[in-house]
Design brief:
The structure is a single chain. By secondary structure, the protein is α+β, with helices and mostly antiparallel strands. The protein has a domain of 93 residues: OB fold (Dihydrolipoamide Acetyltransferase, E2P) (Beta Barrel), CATH 2.40.50. Helix content is 26%, strand content 43%. Strand 2 and strand 3 form a beta hairpin. It starts with a helix and ends with a helix.
Length: 150
């Protein structure tokens, strides 16, 4: 009789652990998309690779996304990310965040009407020529601060 109680207790503990872990993962921080940019250009990029059947080239869609301060050149990581109904259109405004996936810089976004997060690889990122850099002290300011301390 005592063994059956021990087994029941172990099964119950395992069940609580498994269910509690899945609730913890599901209840993580919601993904936020603090950046906003407009798709201003489209093109294609050839991606070269090799596999068991030899070398091959895939042509993947690529896009230019402009924010107030930056210009991103991005390429679809796979056809699922921005193919078919997920295709980005010129003039479309997307909310996104910049992060890393498998060691590569990516732009993460949600396609309109879809709750799945998509990502595209960042090919280049540059400041817009008319963008004002973040306020940084000029070279003269630190010297002035040092002379005031003396």
């Amino acid at each position: 009789m005592k063994r059956s109680h021990q087994r029941s207790a172990c099964l119950l503990a395992a069940l609580v652990f498994v269910l509690g872990g899945s609730v913890a993962f599901a209840g993580g921080d919601p993904k936020t998309y603090p950046e906003e940019g407009k798709v201003t250009g489209t093109s294609t990029t050839d991606v070269h690779g090799s596999g068991p059947h030899g070398e091959h080239t895939l042509t993947m869609p690529s896009y230019k996304i402009e924010t107030d301060t930056r210009i991103y050149e991005v390429r679809c990581a796979n056809s699922f990310a921005c193919g078919g109904k997920n295709k980005l259109e010129i003039g479309e405004v997307i909310r996104f965040r910049v992060g890393k996936k498998m060691g590569k810089q990516c732009v993460f976004f949600q396609a309109p009407g879809d709750d799945k997060e998509r990502y595209v690889l960042v090919l280049s990122e540059e400041l817009k020529p008319d963008a004002k850099p973040a306020t940084q002290p000029s070279a003269a300011e630190p010297a002035e601060a040092d002379s005031k301390q003396q």
